[in-house]
Design a protein that fits this description.
alpha/beta, 29% helix, Lyase, Ornithine Decarboxylase, Chain A, domain 1, 371 residues, four-stranded parallel β-sheet, 2 domains, single chain, elongated, TIM Barrel
Amino acid sequence: MKTNQPHATWVEVDLSALQKNIRIIREVTQIPIMAVVKANGYGHGFIPVTKSAVKAGVNWFGVARPRMAVKMREEGILSKILVLGYIPPERIEEMIQLDVSLTIWTQDHLEFVREAAKHKTKSAKVHILADTGMGRLGCMPGETLSLAQATAAADNVHLEGLFSHLARADELDTEPTNNQGKKFKQIIQVLTKHDLLPKIIHMANSAGSLAHPNTHFNLIRPGIAIYGLPPSPDIQLPEGIKPILSWKSVLASIKDLPPNHGVSYGHQYVTTRRERIGVIPLGYADGYRRVPGNAVLINGKKAPVIGRVCMDQCMIQLEDIPNPQIGDEVVLIGKQGKEEITVDQVALTWNTINYEVTCSIGSRVPRMFPD
């Protein structure tokens, strides 16, 4: 099947499927959503994804870096934004000016925010991050009250939210998540007793949103699930949710190599007979891993990737492909005919998780958003 794309390799993102996924998650949970669009929307293209999510009724977004918040504002996205992690002190004043909410977890962070807010006419909005078991960012549960008290006492600083992050919600064993939930509820009780509990309380990631309703509170933070991918093999997606990303390329070369001919660097693959070999113009610079076991779809059939993946190209075995032609569409992730290569299948080949597969697709690969 010929392709008319003007690119060597590209990603196609189905935004209508994204909106449907969001609506299904909202229907299942009955909780408002903070869509997590960090890491370029998990590799899908965060500006089009965000604008599409707004159309689906999302009014909160979670990002990891200040520059993403800046770009969203430049694109006219006026929704609520929370930077979920560290913000360099030099960027805090800019975030306040852009009405972007900030994460704090130490008194030092609060002091940086307080100093930056001195120079602004609007209050800084902060969310306290509590570490209930992730062992990453966040204040310890016993430190939350003092941080909340200091925040409440700070001029021009508004305690908008309280949140935590789940470490093992994607596992069948529910005890670790239940323990985190108990610790978080104890924090809520303490802050409530001191009349310091903010209005926005959130804890559930995708796995928590789908499998642990006790972690929902009044806002959930689905990430991978809105893109149609399961948080883990143990967490089932609701019916109707589907992947929104396909990754494609094009057949750039076909030639017959004689027996005992090496293919690619190091000649890890050597032909055993006369073999028809194709070349597709993508490689590890595009995020396609340099590992054995890769396969692609061409003309509705699977073709193994052979030899080492190069920086800009890789080779495929065409013996079982019916009538291959230069310009034929090649699918790395997605459907073609009755066959499909899923993100999870690629993740298994790469010995990683589906999150890393989509996030690792390189910035030089254009994201396309067909109607």
